Amino acid sequence: xxxxxxxxxxxxxxxxxxxxxxxxxxxxxxxxxxxxxxxxxxxxxxxxxxxxxxxxxxxxxxxxxxxxxxxxxxxxxxxxxxxxxxxxxxxxxxxxxxxxxxxxxxxxxxxxxxxxxxxxxxxxxxxxxxxxxxxxxxxxxxxxxxxxxxxxxxxxxxxxxx
Amino acid sequence: xxxxxxxxxxxxxxxxxxxxxxxxxxxxxxxxxxxxxxxxxxxxxxxxxxxxxxxxxxxxxxxxxxxxxxxxxxxxxxxxxxxxxxxxxxxxxxxxxxxxxxxxxxxxxxxxxxxxxxxxxxxxxxxxxxxxxxxxxxxxxxxxxxxxxxxxxxxxxxxxxxxxxxxxxxxxxxxxxxxxxxxxxxxxxxxxxxxxxxxxxxxxxxxxxxxxxxxxxxxxxxxxxxxxxxxxxxxxxxxxxxxxxxxxxxxxxxxxxxxxxxxxxxxxxxxxxxxxxxxxxxxxxxxxxxxxxxxxxxxxxxxxxxxxxxxxxxxxxxxxxxxxxxxxxxxxxxxxxxxxxxxxxxxxxxxxxxxxxxxxxxxxxxxxxxxxxxxxxxxxxxxxxxxxxxxxxxxxxxxxxxxxxxxxxxxxxxxxxxxxxxxxxxxxxx
Amino acid sequence: xxxxxxxxxxxxxxxxxxxxxxxxxxxxxxxxxxxxxxxxxxxxxxxxxxxxxxxxxxxxxxxxxxxxxxxxxxxxxxxxxxxxxxxxxxxxxxxxxxxxxxxxxxxxxxxxxxxxxxxxxxxxxxxxxxxxxxxxxxxxxxxxxxxxxxxxxxxxxxxxxxxxxxxxxxxxxxxxxxxxxxxxxxxxxxxxxxxxxxxxxxxxxxxxxxxxxxxxxxxxxxxxxxxxxxxxxxxxxxxxxxxxxxxxxxxxxxxxxxxxxxxxxxxxxxxxxxxxxxxxxxxxxxxxxxxxx
Lengths: 162, 430, 293
Prior knowledge:
The complex is a heterotrimer of chains A (162), B (430) and C (293). Chain A is mostly helical and 162 residues long. Chain A is built from 11 helices and no strands. Chain C has 2 domains: 6-124, Up-down Bundle (Glutathione S-transferase Yfyf (Class Pi), Chain A, domain 2); 142-292, Rossmann fold (3-Layer(aba) Sandwich). Chain C has helices spanning 14-18, 20-32, 49-54, 56-73, 82-97, 99-109, 125-140, 157-160, 163-166, 174-182, 206-222, 233-239, 241-250, 261-268, 275-279; strands at 6-10, 36-39, 76-79, 122-124, 150-154, 186-187, 227-230, 258-260. Helix content of chain C is 51%, strand content 10%. Classes of the chains: A mainly alpha (162), B alpha/beta (430), C alpha/beta (293). Chains in contact: A-B, A-C. The interface between A and B is medium-sized, with 21 and 22 residues.
């Protein structure tokens, strides 16, 4: 076990969507409803909050742990205190990405967004079908805007480094 | 001229104590109660902590004292409609709802109820049992008189025909009385948070998910099952019971962010009671924090674990699912100490709901001109130094309507006596 | 924004890529119910959860750019996909309530000459049908009621959660169910109806995604539904194509046809589905809906 980072909780609390971690009372209502926690002992929203609170930064940020979340918000609905685990997950992942931890599937979507304005693009057959039905064309009309925005926010750098 | 009379609104144990204290000091007390009988929540309980006495056995003598004391006048089935004046000289208009029975003539023999053809769920039994349209809410009711529930009465007149004392008067009219009092005490108590607001617990849909108050009625010898602990769906004795704490309490989704302060206490009491009734039944308590403060409580918890084998699981469950064939319940929870998601089957689940202000509390506060806090509890004029004074001079409050202090019976009685002393101060001023 | 029954149509990425039949059904049905849909030129991806996980400010700015486009059109937005819905709804709600955050986002948007004024409402298809068109109008448009069909509805996570936003909009499960009843079909309760389909874990952890959709399929099968009705294209993918994946990995067959609500409505309104649309359902729907297809 590595050294604890006692500032980790504060760091997450000051990241957008992360302030709920300050309110968690570790009641376990979130994990009892989590569809993923039911299937695998690895993912446990309550335990993840506990690790953040206690300062297990090295055990959280570089790992798979934050990426099992479905963002289904079941936990968020059940939390009595405003701990908002589902939201805190995003804060954890934002920090994880900054450290270079980003799953391949997510990186691919981010790249597609940067290159085409969409995360998923139609294949040739789908485009042909669109045309044959007389539907509007799929364009990359907003691409310049999207790239300017992503450059400004710094996400361009993340995309280019993955 | 200060009126030497006081009105107590709410006939639970807190209001009863205040009334008796004041009456024995020589003041005239009008005890106003909305329901047909005084007694309140304590009358609904089976046994009380810490003495494990039968609740009604302790309460009933106090209730009788109220009815017999020359200085106490009971105005049951009545509501306070208007308050004018100020400390030392209030004029209160009280509406006496018609019970369609002459209290003076009625002997409480119950023959009218025996013949009444209408059956409706009994509020005193938390809708678990039935009563007739003409009824006495519970056997030890004070005053000992029947009441006709006109909303459900079909006006067949059988009660009137059968009554040997000529006490039934189906044409009785509501009465308004104006009373002059020097001070007022509010002791209207609490309601329960409605657990059906948390759909994943299944309350209202699953028959074997009950509230703690419903459990008390099931355990109580004067209750709908005669004190036999059986489960609502099939009358079988439950063999695996779960208590779930903090249902609605400490929950910002419903605005009840406070701790209701007595639920950890009573659930351990109930767990021990159940084990004494049925030693072969296992009882598990699902808690977030076990708040066992004061008065021998931690010791009681330790005994519950070691002597009675009550299981304590640190977890707030997420959902309850019903097995359609057996109507048993599966609780999904994370054992936060072990760090594992589990699901366990129980045959009875008891929810410990938050205790909330009564729905009519705000209206009464408005009539009195008193302030309530954000939750709807009566506000003390200074929570630190004057905890039983409301924000209106001459009006005091005691019991749970002031909010969850320690909230248990000895404290409610204490507060009742405290308000009596405060009232005496006001009334003794000339 | 007022302009009832006319919306900026936010298609999202998944539907044009893989569920053209959904788009086509919407374009055929909505005008019949008096709803006008205007395509949004140059709209970008809504910024679903994967992107939100990468960077917060990027999410807000990208979503807000779409809101700007709708604002310039003078219209509210209607989405089809639940992910798009959640992303745009949360953004519009947060920016409406928090002027400081709106200023921060607008600072980023100034790079592309846009400014969001906070005026756009975001709705989804179920919203529009239930609240704007109305259940009785939907019912009166039914020419061939889907009688005797027992379905399990999958409203999807983001139509009903988080409740603290959705409760304010008075949203629950009842809306989709009421609409299904209006077509003549019967919506049957099943265990863990509000549970996720597993879609968000696709391409991130396929194994878990499959296990979750399998749990859903089991619950649906136990409730003896004849078909599953979806509104989100991810739910459709997970439960329709997902059944073939579950068969491959768990060797279990469920044979539960999955159909989008708008397609059910289309059939109820007496319109036929074309061959390619029928084939787009990987679990065949021919047996189930034989006479009306």
